[in-house]
C-alpha cells in the first residue's frame, strides 16, 4: 500500500478523480483524454508537452521564493520619482490586502452584491476629488504615467480644432511619465513637445494641452496659476500630475485652474512592490465627467427608493462604444484604490496633514543641514524632495548613502535628489547628511517657510466617513461591515465567463507582502533586486514555453495594456519593413470591447468581421474584408477559444489567409485557461498575444484589479516589445516601442503569485487544470441544456471552458430576462455569470477547474430551480410583473416588513432551496436603478442626510 500524497494540483483542482469520473460519465465519456480529443481540434494540439520544472510542493515553493526574496536587498529608498515609502496600517494590510473577502471579489458590475467595495471606491473618489479640488474623480487608473497619457487623449478629444497643435509637457514631469505619454502619442499622431515651462509658455505654436508636475520631479513647488492661466488663454486643457500627500498642504490643481489632475495614490499606504500595483487616479473639472476614462462609481437608488451605489455610465463603456470608448481600460486597480481610500479614512484629514507636515519638516531639516554643510540647494521651495548640487560628486554621495542603507537619486553627475516620506526619521536625515559629508552641520531650519504662500486654506475630507473610524476597533469593524455586503470567491463560485475566477491560493498570495518583495523601489539599484530579476526572467520564460512564443514582457499592467503593447509591436514591425500604411485591424463582431478600443489607441482603423450562425468567424466575410482592404491590412485580432466559448475549427485557416494577405495575427489570450498544456497560440499561427495573469495565472481580481497583462510575441516581433527609459534591462532599447507602463516591469509586486502557481502545478498539473476547466464547462452545459438552450457548441456538441445559456426565447415567451435570472441568483447565494456578453440576452458561464463537484451541482440546481420559477410565470401561477424573479434580489428588511404585498410568499422568496437554510447571503439592497444614477450623476460620498428616509 502506498499513501497517496496530496499535491498542490489536487488542492487547486476542485473535483476529485472520482468526481471527474462522474462528471465524464454524465457527458458520455470514459476518460478525459477522449473528451479532450473531441473538444479540442487536432490542428491546434501541440505535439510537445510543457517543458517546465516538475511541480514543487507548497512548502518547497515557499522555500524557493524565500531564496529569491533573500536576493533582494531592502534599503531605505529616498529616490522619489513618483514612488515613496509609506506605512500600510496593519489593520488595512491584514483585513484588505491579505483578506480574500476583499481580494477575491470581481469588478462590481453586479452592484447589488458589491455595495461594500463600491462604498470603498466612492471613498477613494472623494479623497481624490477633495485633495485635487476637482469635482469628479474616477475609481482608479492603472498608474500615474498611463493616467497622464489618458489625460492627453482626453484633452485631444476635447479640442474641436482640425489642427489642434501640440501637447506641451514641462521638462520637470516624471521621466517615465514623459515617455509613456510619448509612446501613446505616436500612434495617435499627436506631437509632444517637452520644454522648460518654469518661466511660462513658449510664445508660439498651437497647443491643445499642457502637462505640469506638482511638485516637480526636481522637488520644486511653483505657483502654477500663471502658467495655467496662460495655457487657458491659448485654449489648451491643463493637466496637473499632482502628489496627493503634498495636496494636503498645497493649493490644489482645481483651485489653480487645472482641467484635469492625474497621479498616483501609492504613498497612501500601498507598498512599492518594485513598481506596482498601485492605483493611479484622474479627476476632472465640471463639464467633462462624461469623457472620463476608466470606471466611475456613482450613487443611485434601489427598487425600494434606498440610496445605493453602482458603476456610473458603465453601459457606455467598451462593450457598447467599442472603438468610440473613452479608453481601453477594463481591469483597473480596485484593491489598491480601496487601500488608499481606507488609509485616508483611518488617518482622516488631520492625520494626513500631520504626516505631510512631518515629511516636509524632515525635508526642511535636510535642506538646512546641507546648506550649513556648504552644499548648494537648487530649489528653495519644496515639499518633500530636496535637490542638491554636488559638482562631480553625485555618484560618490549616492554610494556613501548606500553604504548607510539609503538609496538616493543620482540625477546626473552633479545633482542628487533626496525625497522624504512617511517612513523618514531624524536618523535617516542624519545619515543622508553624513553621506553628503555635511553631518556635523546639523542645523535648525529657518523660521520662515518658503512653502507657506502656496498653502491651501480650503478644507478636505469633511465627510463623516473620514472622521468616524479612527480607533483600530472601529476601522476593523468598518472594513468587516463593507466586506460582509459583498459576494467574493471566499463565499461562492463566481461563474463569470471570460473572467476565469479560479482559486487564488493562499501560498501564492503569501510572498507579496514579504518586505523583500514589497519594499523594493522600482528604481532602486538593480543589484538590490536580483531576486526580482530572476523571478521575472523565470516567469517570462515559462510563459513563453506555455504560449509557444519567443519572448514575453510582463510590463503591461492589465490585459488592455498588453493589447496595446501587442498592437504597437505589430505597428513597429510593419513600419520597419516600410509598410506603415498597413493600418486596418480586423476584429470579429464577438470580440471583447477592449480589442477595438486598443486598436484605435494603436492608431488602427477597426473593421468588423461577421460571425456566422454557429458563432464562428464568417470566412466568406473575412475573405471579402481581406480583398477590400488588401495592402492596408495590419492585423486580425481574435480571441481563442472564441468569446463564444468554442474552439473554432478554422483558426489555422484564419491565421494562414491573414498571413498570406500580409497581416499579423493577434490572439487575445484571455481564454488561455482552455489551452495551457494542450495548445500554444505561437505554434498554431498567432504572432502575438496578451495573457491575463489575473485570469489564467491566479492573480486575484481584487474587486476589479490589479491585473497583469504580459505580451508574448514570435521572434520577428521581439524587437518591438515595450522598453523603459530608466531601465535598459526592461526591454529592447533601440527598437522597442517605449514604455507601456510607468514601471519597468509593471506590477512586479504581484508576479510571485503567478510564478508560484506555475511552479506548484508543474507541467502535468497545468495541463490537468485545463482539462478540468473544459470538463467542468461541459458538465455544466450538459446539466443545464435541458433547461436553457446552450447557444454555441463546437464539434461533438462540446464547448470549450465556458458556455452560453441563451435566455432570449424564454424572455420572448415569459418576459423574464437574463438580468432577472442574474439578480435571482443573488437570492440563491450566487454571483451571476457574465451578463449579455458577448451576446445580448444571454448568460455566459465559466466554472473553472477550481470549483468542486458539490459547488458545480449547487449552481446547476439553482439555475434549474430558477427555470422552474420561470415556468410558473409562463403558466400563470406567478404574476408576470410581480414574481420572485422580477423583484430579485430580496433584502431581509423587505421580507420582514409588515407591508409585504406580493403575490408569492416570503419563504419562497428567501429560501427557494433547502440548502439555503444552512448558509444564506442577504443582499444589502434591492435591485438598483441604473438609469436614475446616470441621469443624476453623484460620484463622491453623499452627505449623511441623503441616507435618511
Ligand atoms: C478580460 C478580457 C480582456 C481585458 O483584460 P483586462 O485585464 O481586463 O484589461 C480582453 N479580452 C478578453 C476576451 C477578456 O476576457
From TrEMBL:
Positions of post-translational N6-(pyridoxal phosphate)lysine modification: 695
GO molecular function: glycine binding; glycine dehydrogenase (decarboxylating) activity; pyridoxal phosphate binding
GO CC annotations on file: cytosol; glycine cleavage complex
Cofactors named for this entry: pyridoxal 5'-phosphate
Record's keyword terms, sorted: Oxidoreductase, Pyridoxal phosphate
Stretches assigned to the Glycine cleavage system P-protein N-terminal domain: 10-436, 466-722
Keyword match Oxidoreductase: yes
Tree of life domain: Bacteria
GO BP: any one term: glycine decarboxylation via glycine cleavage system
Family that this chain belongs to: Belongs to the GcvP family.
Entry function: The glycine cleavage system catalyzes the degradation of glycine. The P protein binds the alpha-amino group of glycine through its pyridoxal phosphate cofactor; CO(2) is released and the remaining methylamine moiety is then transferred to the lipoamide cofactor of the H protein.
Subunit structure: The glycine cleavage system is composed of four proteins: P, T, L and H.
Protein name: Glycine dehydrogenase (decarboxylating)
UniProt source species: Thermomonospora echinospora
